[in-house]
Amino acid sequence: MRNFFSSEPPPLDRVILKSIRKLKIQHSKLEQARLRLQERDRTLFGACTFALQNKNKARATMCANELAEVRKLVITLSQIQIAIERIILRLETVKELSTIMIDLKPALSTLKKITTNIVNVMPDIASELDNVNNSIQETLNVTKLSSEPPTILTNPKTPEGQEILKEVNTYLEQKVNEQLPEPPMPETPQQTAQPEEKLREMVALVVGGPESQESNLDETSESIRAAKDFKVQSVPFEETDSKHFEDKVFEYIKERKGLIHVTDCALKLKIPPKQVEKILEELYVKGRIVPGT
């Protein structure tokens, strides 16, 4: 006759194998849910891009906000998956070393924490995880693997559990950032800073112009001064043969096909920019250069 009052617990190996099997099933369900969310992520990303292209900033913002929430769920599910994998590995280790009394309470605390975190997202999986946790806890209490009192399931923070969560967070932040592009956000108009002084870098000149000196010298001087309309570091200047620097400035203009950057020329020749302007005026008076059209 069968004894209905017998409460002998099943062997630890059998409980561990059953728990591993259930955890793997739940891990597979989480993977399917995560893949669906990633597909949802791509759909929302495309909708956000399309809305921005059509200047619909309100819809683009709405899609971007929803996309951010979807990515939070993806990270949460991935964290739970990795934590379950860690627990499966721990259970497999215990199974291989079942003759040694190994304390599984840190793993149970982590499993209970996972169950609490997922209960609002996927209640059916949370229920299965809670059953696995209860089965292991009951077996451990009967077989007395540890002399410590039973774990109070109130989301305790254990070093082992915190280590798992820390590794999960670090890994997932990198993985999600690599797999998922950033959602496009509506462009905000940026005010372009107006420079304190307008700069004309180049002055167009014609080398070897006509010899006529009847052109308006004031127009040439104004063009030359426009090229030196910003502050530069003063360079010491030694009074030397002006003909030497006229030739240098003239060669500088020829090398650049009629264009001159006053400051750059002054730095190359190691003379003040005002001296370059003076040399340009002298070259103009001598008919060697004329303003370009």
Task: Record the SSE blueprint.
Blueprint lengths: L11 H42 L3 H40 L8 H14 L4 H21 L15 H21 L23 E5 L9 H10 L15 H14 L3 E2 L1 H8 L3 H13 L3 E3 L2
Antiparallel strand pairs: 1-2, 1-3
Walk me through this protein's architecture.
It is a single chain. With 293 residues, the protein is mostly helical. It folds into two domains: 168 residues, Up-down Bundle (Ferritin); 89 residues, no CATH class. The protein contains nine helices and three strands; from the N terminus they run αααααβααβααβ. Helix 3 crosses helix 5. It starts with 11 loop residues before the first helix and ends with a strand.
The radius of gyration computed from the alpha-carbon positions, rounded to a whole number of angstroms, is 39 Å
Spans of 5+ residues with little confidence (pLDDT < 50)? 144-155, 191-204, 206-240
Tell me about the largest β-sheet. 3 strands, antiparallel
Give the CATH topology of the largest domain. Answer: Ferritin
Helix content: 55-70%
Mean pLDDT: 69
The spatial strand order of the largest sheet comes to 2-1-3
Structural class: mainly alpha
Q: Which percent band covers the strand fraction?
A: under 5%
**Total of DSSP H or I helical runs spanning 4+ residues:** 9
Please write the string of helix (H) and strand (E) elements.
Answer: HHHHHEHHEHHE
CATH class of the largest domain: Mainly Alpha
Tally of distinct domains: 2
- End-to-end distance, in Å? 117 Å
